[in-house]
């Protein structure tokens, strides 16, 4: 009940916040429309009485009243719809924005790793679309409440026993709640196959992956898997719907029996001469409305319960999305690095797993240095970078920025001092200038800043080769959108990464994987100049992960990672002379190039 009231209150508060005038208008129109129905029953009873009594004048007056009330009952809800239509749209948008905010607004990304969180998200995405039904139910509910009170008063006036009719509405209500619980459990249980099936659907319909799917000929296999998963989810939901239907039907039968008994009660009074024929008409019409009111109330309550459930899930998700220690983290990062960044006894396992991905990492990254991180696939290089960005906290040990624990730094401030380009970069389907400018929001619209960043990413001429220069719209979602090659997208992502002029940490995780060797070489030359400028200005450290040793060898410091441990640290010459893993990997790559 508390969940329901909280959900209802949140919804009405949201509607009021979004548009108080339209909320008030919708409630007024809905209320007038709802109250007109029981009044119509009373007017019909009155008209019947006058007709039977042969009072023509009063019968005509009653008839006109009946007509006015009938028109009101039938039409006002349509006008109310006009008022709440826009509100529902806005409220749905508001709900979606909250979902995005909870999913994406936290400093850490640990919640994305938890399976139960993913299930909540699957359900929330499905339920968000039902928001309009919930709001409509709530607005209808206000009018319905008044109509129920009016009906109760009118029925009690005929026979107090008729007041038991609304009591008979309790079983359908309880049955409806039980049915909703059964469905909710089934939705949670089937969230995983549904999510996986949706992933497969996106995979098999993605334009980006169409080529690979055709070459590897896995289309049929993926389609079959999608079909099996979808069928599994549907079977689970169907069984729940069957149980829910039986529960609801059982509840309704209880009310139907009470309704018939109520009507028979007044018919008996009329036969005994205690009530007139007008009363019988009133009760027959009104009792039918009680049936309608209860059915509507049950549906409205189900909608409200559903929405309240969605709110509960959202609130719980928001509470579980804590991110790394937001309360403790208050300090600001230093304006410039003097000592550097240290890993002190760092170990790390991803949330929800026990397997350590990093172990006993002790590492000093000197201020102003360019650091290359190398190692085999899965060694832990990207994880190291993610800890530096504060996406996760170490399971043991500390990351220190000029001696201060990263845990104590306010993450938004630390992020503001990081410039980063990731392996999985985003392909924003915006205009070219914006795609790059996003890297430094305050200077996003500055054309010189964007051009400078493109120059650093060795992509100064890229806009000139596009139809509308920096204003060219990118992506296939638009009719006039231009699609870029993988390397061009990567260069724009790199440009975005170097938009910030004075970062303390510049992170590039495999920044050149899609570039040809010539482009890669040119880019690293330019990039090194930028890194040196940043180092002079802020003592900033550049950390890049790369499998290309031609780029790695130029770094001031090379960190070799194997099985989650840092096994070698030094510059190119020292590591080659050391004859360890680095020397081995370097020799292997040099040989394959020869
Ligand atoms: N989100 C995650 N949840 C659980 N385990 C993960 C996650 N991301 C990575 N891992 C695991 O952590 C280990 C290290 O991964 P990481 O991405 O850091 O390797 P890497 O050295 O960057 O590899 P690559 O060169 O292939 O990019 C791998 O065994 C991987 O399976």
From TrEMBL:
A Pfam family matched in the record: ABC_tran
UniProt main location, coarse: membrane
GO cellular component: plasma membrane
Name of the protein this chain belongs to: ABC transporter ATP-binding protein
Protein's UniProt keywords contain Membrane: yes
Alphabetical UniProt keywords: ATP-binding, Membrane, Nucleotide-binding, Transmembrane, Transmembrane helix
Residue span, ABC transporter domain: 341-588
Domain ABC transmembrane type-1: 24-306
Transmembrane segment boundaries: 25-47, 59-80, 137-156, 246-267
Bilayer topology annotation: Multi-pass membrane protein
Record-level Gene Ontology MF annotations: ABC-type transporter activity; ATP binding; ATP hydrolysis activity; ATPase-coupled lipid transmembrane transporter activity
Annotated coiled-coil segments of the chain: none
Domain of life: Bacteria
Keyword Nucleotide-binding appears in the UniProt entry: yes
SUPFAM superfamilies membership: ABC transporter transmembrane region (SSF90123), P-loop containing nucleoside triphosphate hydrolases (SSF52540)
Localization terms from the record: Cell membrane
InterPro entries with a match to the protein in the record: AAA+_ATPase, ABC1_TM_dom, ABC1_TM_sf, ABC_transporter-like_ATP-bd, ABC_transporter-like_CS, P-loop_NTPase, Type_1_exporter
